Amino acid sequence: MTMLSPQQTPAGTSYLVTGQGEPVVLIHGVGLNKEMWGGQIVGLAPHFQVIAYDMLGHGASPRPASGTALEAYADQLFELLEHLDLPRATIIGFSMGGLVARAFALKHAQRTAALVILNSVFNRTPEQRAGVIARTAQAAQHGPDANAEAALSRWFSREYQAANPAQIAAIRQTLASNDPQGYLTTYELFATQDMYRADQLGDIRVPTLVATGELDPGSTPEMARQLAAHIPGAETVVLDEQRHMMPVESPRLVNQMLLDFLHRAQASRHSVEGNVA
Known about the structure:
The protein is of the alpha/beta class. The protein is built from eleven helices and eight strands. Pfam families: Abhydrolase_1. It comes from Pseudomonas panipatensis. GO terms for molecular function: catalytic activity.
């Protein structure tokens, strides 16, 4: 695959774009960047125009001010679509990116063609909430890589870590190199916004897939099922034996799930548009 050259929007968002067809936007998780999507870019670009970008506070994108709200992250995506002159796109969000995708679909419904929420959070239990709040405090005190080893253990299987030490080391370095304030601002949202506008999720009226891994301890199958139950017609998929970073650890498996959904959503949309015409 040819190396893609990052580009920037007028507001400074760093992004990659490749492929032809209907646009699909990929949103990474906290502490990561657009590079996490390499497996999906390769798998989806033969079928769609694929856009991956760095969230506020990450990679080469601008740093948010302390206390920035989730809506600003949705507005960053809106500015990206405006820059690319895209009237709408399918939005795929992973982990924190799933919260951004939800916020975008609620605030910019007319720009959302379909929605995929991967390994994201919803309605944490008191114990789960206490755990993520504790990790936020550790990050505030010790920096973005304060929880790196524990995070990698949650994110990847032991077998994958042992077989791919160079990639694990690179992800550990990505975590450590994050801007401390940008990371903390984003992590605080990740820790507190799992019920963001939960009572309005029924307003999302586009094809939606909510998926996670069977062994994802922070974005559990029960969370996925509960979130999907709030969105009319949403599908739920739980991938057997997968942990949090399933897009990286098992890209072929995740890509097949995504392509199955994206092609069905595309066909449904074209059918509706044909009937209207």
